[in-house]
């Protein structure tokens, strides 16, 4: 049985820098009223691994400036982790909402719901549970990877949802 491993492969240093220091990051499960799909029992354990993999990828990207005046948080809410129960090939779908929040003003600089699939073909492994586990790994890795790609378009000076005092 392969371990759950959400570490995103092939993350390089970003040529673009976000003029903000990343101060904290959290990954939590969405509330039942926020869910966009299944949040199976036992999923709570995956949030820490998701956060570690995301932190590792952002560290490798070196996209945030450690000495910037602006301080930001990243908050991730896992809204779905749809794992197939059986099948020859396995496709797991993850949906997560990523937000970058300005710590000083509360403005939401960036927010997006990202949906990603992790597809494992029938010939990947003989045992179905191995294919299922790998499809979870690939889905979360693809979800994080899409967020990393979106970071290149973030402009901290143009928040998507400015705090009421800034309007």
From TrEMBL:
A molecular function GO annotation: acyltransferase activity
Keywords: Acyltransferase, Transferase
Protein name: UDP-N-acetylglucosamine acyltransferase
Source organism (scientific name): Pigmentiphaga aceris
